[in-house]
């Protein structure tokens, strides 16, 4: 047995091996030690190997899903090894023969299908990264092309898109896969090391052969049973490599089973709003910075009632559209259902009872499903019919009409067959039987009648024997060893075998401590009939199940399309309910550069205030639209006190843009959004100690990414750039960054700062406007109004905020004194002098201009100085001489 284990383990070294032994999955050696720690189960020993005790632990087969859930959550992969032959066959080969076992499935974070292991509202993506080297020849640099393919094996969803080295991490985190499969050479490429460091255990290196682009077309064609994958569309070599890698990994993990994957759907470049990794985290779209769903935008807007709808909502939130026509089609659906409130509620009532059809379909196709999965499809098809009935008299917008067309295409014969075949109450496992409706199969009904009638005959026989023998306690029982038997207490043994006639009739089977067991010829014959009837009934039911399974899988594409349509209707109805309950408005979305929001609100903070404090959220306007003949959007320079609401205002405008472009109504009185193609946000402070980056370094890296990538259609949100270093260093960086945004990026932006000197920039930069968070001072205290108005702040009220935070009074008073002295220093006028040097690019031109020949006496004097060799007194004297020379020149 251990030889067999070692052989199978050698072929699955990267996985924990669940080795089937009877009713347990056993783990040995290092696997046992890892599992024991991860699962909190007892580590024991069994036998020896090379003179050492063999560590061992195990989990019951019937509870394996619970243990798998814990292991998968911790990032482990599990190889499930089952017995693949009847033990009787092994005995025929000899007494020392071991039952043949083999791995039937690899369970990995990205390929799970079990209902217990999946969150209903979250997709479970497995992603692959394909790369084709360019002419530059470097491993990941000049000319290389990248593509990502991602599959949710539990639903069959399959998508692919091109990427690039500089946006690879952002594209991966947008999808948020549970597992990223990469070729070994890519995984060990030093230029991509930073990407895989961020992903950690999510990245899973595999042999490069899985991604061979030359063999990709053949592998794809074989999997789908087509002549060529070109019938699915045109794909680049990198995309084919990624698709092939995904299919190869599915085949590797599912062994002999094939999930019903949809054909790869290509996402066009630029079809969705680009949001980089830092922005996605800062805006807390699907999870907060602490990793919780509560407090995220997704949690705040989710009003869906189905698992598929919740997954579609998350997908739309992470990838808002950039096509105004498609956005407005979605908005039309929300507007329609907002107006038709009775229809909206009727649809939601139907959808609440709709099960997760794609996941049930996937389990069935992989031979892991049961009768309840067939029941889920039956209920889902019924919900589809009810939805069609509900909207039959309505004039639907295009989006809902297309969804209903998909529902109309669902196979009616499949629905009726499932209705006829399945009982109302269904068991979890097909081996339990009892899931086929009475009247569906005549032979099954006959076997069931025989089985059930025989049980009544057994009861009658028990009654007759009790009367005949006078033993009231006589029972006819059954177990798996003896079958049916007659049991009496030991003190009645004389009655059963006291005479020759009794001995001839009652055949002794077993003596127990307090009872004796017998059988009769009649009982043995009846047992044979019962056993045969029950076995035959189960065989018929299993055949019915297999037939229904084949029919279901043959309609997989139509079922997936119908389920997707139900999800779309769910999301549209959820958006309508959200808009009504939270007083959201329909945004105007077009191809322009407008960004005008009246009475905008933060969707998450507003709901939190209502729950916790019952205080209304203070709404604010924002207008970054081009003015007059200007060809580019505006920049708002936002000043104001700490705790005044600057960060909330920054984030709420970014979130409003996201909601508008995902096709949702927005938290505002009115909104006009010109398409944003890239969204960047630098908000909050964090460090990256593992990669040797301080808070300030992280801030600078993220700022650099924004300044290097933002175009005129981008929306940029920047908060407190430059605060992590010395005051004048920070001011200088923030100043130059604003100039660059204005002159080079020419994007719509909001720039919050405490460097009040920067407000002077509005005098020279035509598209820059000063706005501030308003406050009032009252009897020495500061009152935050949370209102945004035109103008500039002259103070940050940091000392007052420190007092509110609870700093000791002596510290606060000392801070006031120091602040007063600093403000009286020679700092006035510096901003005005800096403005005279604008713009940034004229300064750069001066710096890059060649020096004139010669240089004069001042230049010669400076050239002759050697500061490292001078005493402080000599340096001071030299400084006076230089000043005198400068005055003469």
From TrEMBL:
Residues holding ATP: 640-647
Protein keywords: ATP-binding, DNA damage, DNA repair, DNA-binding, Nucleotide-binding
SUPFAM superfamilies: DNA repair protein MutS, domain I, DNA repair protein MutS, domain II, DNA repair protein MutS, domain III, P-loop containing nucleoside triphosphate hydrolases
UniProt xrefs under Pfam families: MutS_I, MutS_II, MutS_III, MutS_IV, MutS_V
SMART domains linked: MUTSac, MUTSd
Domain of life the protein comes from: Bacteria
Record-annotated DNA mismatch repair proteins mutS family domain positions: 714-730
Signal sequence segment: none
HAMAP family: MutS
Entry similarity comment: Belongs to the DNA mismatch repair MutS family.
Function text: This protein is involved in the repair of mismatches in DNA. It is possible that it carries out the mismatch recognition step. This protein has a weak ATPase activity.
Protein name: DNA mismatch repair protein MutS
Record organism: Neoaquamicrobium sediminum
Annotated gene: mutS
């Amino acid at each position: 047995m251990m030889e067999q284990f070692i052989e199978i383990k050698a072929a699955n070294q990267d996985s924990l091996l669940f080795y089937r032994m009877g009713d347990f999955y056993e783990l040995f050696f290092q696997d046992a030690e890892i599992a024991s720690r991860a699962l909190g189960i007892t580590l024991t020993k069994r036998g020896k190997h090379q003179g050492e005790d063999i560590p061992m632990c195990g989990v019951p087969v019937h509870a394996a899903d619970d243990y798998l859930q814990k292991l998968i959550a911790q990032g482990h992969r599990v190889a499930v090894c089952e017995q693949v032959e009847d033990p009787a066959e092994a005995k025929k080969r000899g007494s020392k023969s071991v039952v043949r076992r083999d791995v039937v499935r690899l369970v990995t974070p990205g390929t799970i299908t079990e209902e217990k292991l999946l969150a209903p509202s979250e997709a479970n993506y497995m992603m692959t990264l394909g790369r084709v080297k360019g002419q530059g020849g470097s491993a990941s640099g000049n000319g290389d092309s990248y593509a990502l393919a991602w599959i949710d094996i539990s639903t069959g969803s399959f998508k692919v898109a091109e990427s690039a080295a500089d946006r690879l991490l952002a594209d991966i985190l947008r999808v948020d896969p549970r597992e990223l499969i990469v070729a070994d050479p890519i995984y060990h490429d030093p230029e991509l090391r930073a990407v895989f460091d961020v992903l950690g255990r999510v990245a899973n290196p595999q042999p490069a052969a899985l991604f061979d682009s030359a063999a990709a077309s053949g592998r794809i064609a074989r999997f789908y049973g087509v002549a060529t994958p070109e019938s699915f569309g045109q794909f680049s070599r990198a995309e084919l490599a990624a698709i092939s890698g995904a299919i190869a990994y599915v085949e590797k993990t599912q062994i002999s089973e094939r999930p019903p994957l949809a054909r790869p759907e290509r996402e066009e470049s630029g079809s969705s709003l680009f949001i980089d990794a830092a922005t996605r985290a800062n805006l807390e779209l699907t999870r907060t910075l602490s990793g919780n769903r509560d407090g995220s935008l997704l949690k705040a807007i989710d009003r869906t009632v189905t698992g598929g709808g919740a997954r579609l909502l998350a997908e739309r939130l992470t990838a808002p559209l950039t096509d105004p026509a498609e956005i407005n089609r979605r908005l039309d659906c929300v507007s329609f259902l907002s107006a038709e409130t009775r229809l909206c509620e009727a649809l939601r009532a139907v959808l609440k009872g709709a099960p997760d059809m794609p996941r049930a379909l996937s389990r069935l196709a992989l031979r892991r499903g049961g009768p309840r999965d067939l029941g889920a499809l039956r209920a889902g098809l019924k919900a589809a019919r009810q939805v069609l009935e509900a909207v039959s008299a309505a004039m639907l917008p295009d989006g809902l009409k297309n969804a209903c067309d998909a529902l109309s295409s669902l196979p009616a014969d499949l629905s009726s067959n499932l209705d006829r075949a399945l009982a109302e109450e269904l068991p979890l496992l097909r081996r339990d039987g009892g899931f086929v409706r009475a009247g569906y199969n005549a032979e099954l009904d006959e076997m069931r009648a025989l089985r059930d009638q025989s049980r009544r005959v057994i009861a009658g026989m028990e009654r007759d024997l009790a009367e005949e023998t006078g033993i009231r306690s006589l029972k006819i029982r059954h177990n798996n060893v003896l079958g049916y038997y007659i049991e009496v207490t030991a003190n009645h043994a004389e009655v059963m075998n006291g005479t020759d006639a009794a001995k001839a009739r009652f055949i002794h089977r077993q003596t127990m401590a307090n009872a004796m067991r017998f059988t009769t010829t009649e009982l043995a014959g009846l047992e044979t009939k019962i056993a045969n009837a029950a076995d035959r009934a189960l065989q018929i039911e299993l055949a019915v199940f297999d037939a229904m399974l084949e029919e279901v899988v043959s309609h997989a594409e139509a079922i997936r399309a119908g389920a997707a349509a139900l999800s779309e209707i769910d999301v549209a109805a959820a958006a309508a309910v959200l808009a009504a309950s939270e007083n959201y408005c329909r945004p105007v979305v077009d191809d322009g550069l407008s960004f005008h929001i009246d009475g905008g609100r933060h969707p998450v903070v507003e709901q939190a205030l209502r729950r916790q404090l019952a205080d209304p959220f203070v709404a604010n306007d924002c207008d970054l639209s081009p003015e007059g003949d200007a060809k580019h959007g505006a920049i708002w320079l936002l000043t104001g006190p700490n705790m005044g609401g600057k960060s909330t205002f920054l984030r709420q405008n970014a979130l409003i843009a996201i909601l508008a472009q995902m096709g949702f109504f927005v938290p505002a009185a009115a909104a006009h959004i010109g398409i944003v193609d890239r969204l960047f946000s630098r908000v909050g402070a964090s460090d990256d100690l593992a990669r040797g980056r301080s808070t300030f370094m992280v801030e600078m890296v993220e700022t650099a990414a924004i300044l290097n990538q933002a175009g005129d259609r981008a929306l940029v949100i920047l908060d407190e750039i430059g605060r992590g270093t010395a005051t004048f260093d920070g001011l200088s960086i923030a100043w130059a960054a604003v100039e660059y945004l204005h002159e080079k990026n020419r994007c719509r932006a909001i720039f919050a700062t405490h460097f009040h000197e920067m407000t002077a920039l509005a005098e020279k930069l035509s598209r820059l406007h000063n706005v501030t968070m308003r406050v009032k001072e009252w009897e020495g205290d500061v009152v935050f109004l949370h209102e945004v108005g035109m103008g500039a702040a002259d103070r940050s009220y940091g000392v007052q905020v420190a007092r509110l935070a609870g700093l000791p009074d002596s510290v606060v008073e000392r801070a006031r004194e120091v602040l007063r002295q600093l403000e009286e220093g020679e700092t006035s006028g510096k901003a005005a002098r800096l403005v005279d040097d604008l713009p940034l690019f004229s300064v750069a031109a001066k710096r890059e201009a060649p020096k004139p020949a010669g240089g004069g006496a001042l230049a010669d004097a400076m050239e002759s100085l050697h500061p490292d060799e001078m005493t402080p007194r000599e340096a001071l004297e030299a400084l006076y001489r230089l000043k005198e020379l400068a005055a003469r020149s």
